[in-house]
């Protein structure tokens, strides 16, 4: 189910063009979520484009705009240079997809997990899908072939969307009417894709807004990004900050049940308590804010398991908020205490356990956490 619902709607838009701004305004107006597939090697490029005998602007966003513009939605990969992948050498496929994914992850500050095959026509095949699945961090790949139905994809690395808004606009409207009336006994997904610049061709912005109005804010429908509906439907959704942390594995067998960073989070989620919270923050600790005051002892315990370094973000009160870095991966298991505040995980201060544990109360809290984990 989709958070207890049988129906979900998601959108997918390609190329990262300037018309995405207007499209995002519409999605936000109706509380809808979308995924935007970008080419990290083509930012701030483009110009007039002839499409369907109409000249329209096709200009891509600037790199420095990406995080802010797409905030609240999802960014996914689309190849570094919009490379057509069918018949492309394996090494080049990996470079185009994974380098794009990593570059976009750097820009947005979270792990990019999705991908849309670039180009029209037959722009995908089983070979390309296999190469991406086996050699990149991509978890799902959208094609451009419409299924015309609401069934969930069987193969996440080569799946069909429901409908293409541009050449199937009327069909999209009819499917939307069917979907809102649907009373399914199994999970159903309405997946719409396209390019934002296509609304300029025949000025269909107003018609599309009417469509959004029709399908939005319904109690029996879940509205999410592609990752929300494809990956997080059954999986637990983790809210702690993570960048490339999915590849980190335990460096030792001291805690046999802890293999991944998420394993450690799941275990600590049952352990964090007022007693392990920093004394100066203890009055504000609650079960709804478990990570409050737990940063340093958690980060050094994570270092025991995964290695790497502990860094600190200088806070306004003069204290450091601690997090972990292992190679080029970063994770902050206690970031949820800051709510929607966006922390800067770059160019921070290396932390040393000797200095932290010189405080007897902090050492005791670390030992309490450590012993409970065992």
What does this protein structure show overall?
The protein is of the alpha/beta class. The chain folds into two domains: 7-230, Alpha-Beta Barrel (TIM Barrel), CATH 3.20.20.370; 241-373, no CATH class. The protein is 31% helix and 18% strand. The protein is built from twelve helices and 15 strands. It has helices spanning 20-29, 66-69, 90-108, 126-135, 169-181, 198-201, 205-215, 226-230, 261-269, 295-306, 353-356, 360-373; strands at 7-14, 34-38, 46-51, 54-59, 74-77, 114-116, 140-142, 163-164, 188-194, 221-223, 241-243, 309-314, 320-326, 329-332, 349-350. Strands 1, 2, 5, 8, 9 and 10 form a six-stranded parallel beta sheet that branches. A five-stranded antiparallel beta sheet has the order 11-14-13-12-15, covered by helices on one side. A hairpin with a 2-residue loop joins strand 3 and strand 4. It is elongated. 39% of the residues are buried. The model has no long low-confidence stretch (mean pLDDT 95).
What's the quick description here?
Helix content is 31%, strand content 18%. By secondary structure, it is an alpha/beta fold. The protein starts with 6 loop residues before the first strand and ends with a helix.
Question: Hey, roughly how much beta strand do the residues contain?
Answer: 15-25%
CATH topology of the largest domain: TIM Barrel
> What is the CATH level 1 assignment of the largest domain?
Alpha Beta
Number of helices: 12
Question: What is the total tally of β strands?
Answer: 15
Q: Which CATH architecture of the largest domain? A: Alpha-Beta Barrel
Tell me which oligomeric state these chains represent.
Answer: single chain
SSE string, helices as H and strands as E: EHEEEHEHEHEEHEHHEHEHHEEEEHH
Shape: elongated
Radius of gyration from CA coordinates:
23 Å
Q: How can the largest sheet be summarized?
A: 6 strands, parallel
Class per helix and strand makeup: alpha/beta
The percent of residues in helical segments reads 25-40%
Uncertain residue ranges: none
């Amino acid at each position: 189910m989709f958070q207890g619902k049988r129906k979900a709607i998601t959108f997918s838009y390609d190329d990262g063009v300037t018309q995405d701004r207007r499209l995002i305004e519409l999605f936000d107006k109706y509380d809808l979520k979308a995924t935007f597939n970008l080419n990290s090697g083509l930012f701030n490029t483009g110009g007039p484009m002839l499409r369907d005998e109409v000249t329209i602007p096709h200009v891509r966003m600037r790199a420095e705009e990406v995080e802010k513009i797409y905030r609240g939605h999802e960014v996914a990969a689309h190849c570094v240079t919009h490379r057509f992948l069918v018949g492309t050498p394996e090494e080049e496929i990996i470079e185009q997809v994974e380098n794009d994914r990593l570059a976009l992850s750097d820009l947005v500050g979270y792990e990019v997990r999705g991908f849309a095959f670039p180009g029209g026509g037959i722009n995908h095949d089983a070979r390309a899908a296999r190469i991406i699945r086996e050699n990149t961090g991509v978890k799902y790949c959208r094609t451009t072939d419409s299924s015309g139905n609401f069934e969930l994809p069987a193969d996440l690395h080569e799946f069909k969307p429901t409908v293409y808004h541009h050449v199937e606009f009327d069909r999209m409207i009819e499917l939307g009417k069917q979907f809102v009336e649907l009373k399914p006994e199994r999970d159903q997904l309405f997946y719409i894709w396209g390019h934002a610049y296509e609304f300029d061709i025949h000025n269909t912005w107003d018609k599309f807004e009417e469509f959004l109005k029709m399908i939005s804010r319904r109690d029996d429908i879940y509205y999410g990004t592609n990752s929300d509906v494809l990956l997080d439907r059954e999986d637990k959704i983790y809210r702690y900050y993570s960048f490339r942390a999915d590849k980190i594995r335990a460096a030792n067998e001291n805690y046999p049940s802890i293999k991944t960073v998420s394993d450690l989070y799941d275990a600590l989620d049952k352990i964090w308590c007022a007693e392990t919270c920093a004394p100066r923050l203890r009055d504000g600790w609650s079960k709804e804010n478990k990570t409050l005051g737990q940063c340093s002892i958690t980060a050094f315990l994570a270092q025991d398991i995964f290695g790497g370094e502990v860094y600190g973000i200088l806070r306004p009160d003069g204290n450091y908020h601690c997090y972990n870095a292992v190679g080029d991966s970063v994770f902050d298991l206690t970031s949820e205490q800051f709510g929607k505040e966006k922390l800067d995980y770059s160019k921070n201060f290396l932390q040393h356990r000797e200095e932290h544990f010189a405080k007897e109360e902090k050492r005791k809290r670390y030992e309490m956490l450590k012993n409970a984990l065992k």
